[in-house]
Amino acid sequence: MSSHDKPLKIGLTNWIEEYNNSICNSDELLNRIQTFITSYEQVEKDEEKQSKEEVTDEEGWTLVTRGGRRPGLSRKERLEAKLNEKTAKSSKKKELKNFYTFQIRESQMKHIATLRKNFEEAKKKVNLMKQSRRFKPC
After folding, report:
1. Per the structure, how many domains does the chain have?
2. How would you write the pLDDT of the chain (138 residues) with one tens digit per residue?
3. Residue span of the structural domain in which 104 resides
4. Where in this protein does the record put region Disordered (predicted)?
5. Does residue 37 lie in a domain region?
6. Segments in 12-100 forming alpha helices (H)
7. In a domain, 137, yes or no
8. Sign of the CA dihedral with 96 first, then 100, 106, and 111 last
9. Which of 76, 75, 56, 78 is nearest to 65 (CA)?
10. What's the predicted TM-score (pTM) here?
11. Which end of the chain has fewer CB atoms < 10 Å from its terminal CB, N or C?
Protein backbone atom coordinates (compact mmCIF):
# COMPACT_ATOMS: atom_id res chain seq x y z
CA MET A 1 0.00 0.00 0.00
CA SER A 2 2.88 2.37 0.72
CA SER A 3 4.95 3.76 -2.18
CA HIS A 4 7.93 6.06 -2.57
CA ASP A 5 5.69 8.91 -3.82
CA LYS A 6 3.17 8.61 -1.01
CA PRO A 7 4.56 6.84 2.04
CA LEU A 8 1.94 5.53 4.45
CA LYS A 9 2.55 6.81 7.97
CA ILE A 10 1.39 4.58 10.77
CA GLY A 11 1.80 4.42 14.50
CA LEU A 12 3.87 6.94 16.39
CA THR A 13 5.00 8.97 13.38
CA ASN A 14 1.36 9.43 12.28
CA TRP A 15 0.32 10.62 15.76
CA ILE A 16 3.23 13.07 16.01
CA GLU A 17 2.36 14.58 12.63
CA GLU A 18 -1.34 14.88 13.55
CA TYR A 19 -0.42 16.61 16.83
CA ASN A 20 1.95 19.05 15.15
CA ASN A 21 -0.69 19.86 12.52
CA SER A 22 -3.33 20.49 15.21
CA ILE A 23 -1.24 23.24 16.83
CA CYS A 24 -1.64 26.49 14.94
CA ASN A 25 0.74 29.40 14.71
CA SER A 26 0.26 32.18 17.30
CA ASP A 27 0.22 34.91 14.62
CA GLU A 28 -2.39 33.01 12.64
CA LEU A 29 -4.47 32.47 15.79
CA LEU A 30 -4.24 36.17 16.67
CA ASN A 31 -5.43 37.14 13.19
CA ARG A 32 -8.37 34.74 13.39
CA ILE A 33 -9.36 36.13 16.79
CA GLN A 34 -9.13 39.74 15.57
CA THR A 35 -11.31 39.03 12.54
CA PHE A 36 -13.87 37.26 14.71
CA ILE A 37 -14.00 40.13 17.22
CA THR A 38 -14.40 42.78 14.51
CA SER A 39 -17.18 40.83 12.83
CA TYR A 40 -18.93 40.31 16.18
CA GLU A 41 -18.71 44.02 17.04
CA GLN A 42 -20.14 44.89 13.62
CA VAL A 43 -23.08 42.52 14.21
CA GLU A 44 -23.66 44.10 17.64
CA LYS A 45 -23.71 47.61 16.14
CA ASP A 46 -26.16 46.52 13.45
CA GLU A 47 -28.48 44.95 16.01
CA GLU A 48 -28.33 48.10 18.15
CA LYS A 49 -29.23 50.28 15.17
CA GLN A 50 -32.16 48.02 14.32
CA SER A 51 -33.41 48.10 17.89
CA LYS A 52 -33.27 51.90 17.97
CA GLU A 53 -35.25 52.29 14.77
CA GLU A 54 -38.99 51.89 14.86
CA VAL A 55 -39.91 48.43 13.74
CA THR A 56 -42.96 47.98 11.55
CA ASP A 57 -44.36 44.72 10.30
CA GLU A 58 -45.86 43.91 6.87
CA GLU A 59 -49.24 45.41 7.73
CA GLY A 60 -47.78 48.74 8.86
CA TRP A 61 -48.18 48.29 12.61
CA THR A 62 -45.46 49.69 14.81
CA LEU A 63 -44.12 47.02 17.10
CA VAL A 64 -43.72 48.01 20.73
CA THR A 65 -40.24 47.37 22.05
CA ARG A 66 -38.91 47.22 25.54
CA GLY A 67 -37.31 50.69 25.58
CA GLY A 68 -40.39 52.92 25.48
CA ARG A 69 -40.33 56.66 26.08
CA ARG A 70 -38.55 56.38 29.39
CA PRO A 71 -36.39 53.26 29.18
CA GLY A 72 -35.46 53.20 32.86
CA LEU A 73 -33.33 54.66 35.58
CA SER A 74 -29.62 55.11 35.24
CA ARG A 75 -27.71 53.26 37.93
CA LYS A 76 -25.72 56.00 39.66
CA GLU A 77 -24.12 55.67 43.06
CA ARG A 78 -26.72 57.84 44.80
CA LEU A 79 -29.57 55.92 43.24
CA GLU A 80 -27.87 52.63 44.05
CA ALA A 81 -27.55 53.67 47.70
CA LYS A 82 -31.22 54.70 47.87
CA LEU A 83 -32.35 51.41 46.36
CA ASN A 84 -30.20 49.46 48.82
CA GLU A 85 -31.65 51.48 51.69
CA LYS A 86 -35.18 50.84 50.49
CA THR A 87 -34.64 47.10 50.17
CA ALA A 88 -33.09 47.01 53.64
CA LYS A 89 -36.14 48.83 55.06
CA SER A 90 -38.58 46.49 53.36
CA SER A 91 -36.67 43.42 54.53
CA LYS A 92 -36.70 44.83 58.07
CA LYS A 93 -40.50 45.15 57.92
CA LYS A 94 -40.83 41.56 56.80
CA GLU A 95 -38.65 40.31 59.64
CA LEU A 96 -40.54 38.67 62.48
CA LYS A 97 -39.26 40.22 65.69
CA ASN A 98 -41.57 38.72 68.29
CA PHE A 99 -42.71 35.42 66.90
CA TYR A 100 -42.97 33.38 70.09
CA THR A 101 -45.11 34.30 73.10
CA PHE A 102 -42.16 34.47 75.49
CA GLN A 103 -40.53 37.02 73.14
CA ILE A 104 -43.69 39.13 73.19
CA ARG A 105 -43.76 39.00 77.01
CA GLU A 106 -40.09 39.94 77.24
CA SER A 107 -40.49 42.89 74.89
CA GLN A 108 -43.50 44.14 76.85
CA MET A 109 -41.54 43.85 80.12
CA LYS A 110 -38.61 45.77 78.64
CA HIS A 111 -40.96 48.47 77.38
CA ILE A 112 -42.60 48.84 80.80
CA ALA A 113 -39.17 48.97 82.48
CA THR A 114 -38.02 51.78 80.21
CA LEU A 115 -41.26 53.69 80.81
CA ARG A 116 -40.79 53.36 84.60
CA LYS A 117 -37.17 54.50 84.36
CA ASN A 118 -38.15 57.55 82.28
CA PHE A 119 -40.94 58.33 84.77
CA GLU A 120 -38.52 58.24 87.70
CA GLU A 121 -36.10 60.54 85.88
CA ALA A 122 -38.92 62.97 85.11
CA LYS A 123 -39.97 62.96 88.81
CA LYS A 124 -36.41 63.79 89.85
CA LYS A 125 -36.30 66.67 87.39
CA VAL A 126 -39.60 68.03 88.68
CA ASN A 127 -38.36 67.85 92.30
CA LEU A 128 -35.14 69.67 91.36
CA MET A 129 -37.18 72.37 89.63
CA LYS A 130 -39.38 72.75 92.72
CA GLN A 131 -36.37 73.03 95.01
CA SER A 132 -34.62 75.54 92.77
CA ARG A 133 -37.60 77.92 92.93
CA ARG A 134 -37.20 80.58 95.59
CA PHE A 135 -39.67 83.12 96.72
CA LYS A 136 -38.14 86.57 96.33
CA PRO A 137 -40.37 89.39 97.50
CA CYS A 138 -39.51 92.79 96.14
Report:
1. 2
2. 778 788 788 889 899 999 988 888 889 889 999 999 999 999 999 888 877 666 677 787 877 766 666 666 666 788 888 889 999 988 888 888 888 999 999 999 999 999 999 999 999 998 888 888 865 555
3. 98-130
4. 45-77
5. yes
6. 12-22, 26-52, 77-94
7. no
8. positive
9. 56
10. 0.33
11. C
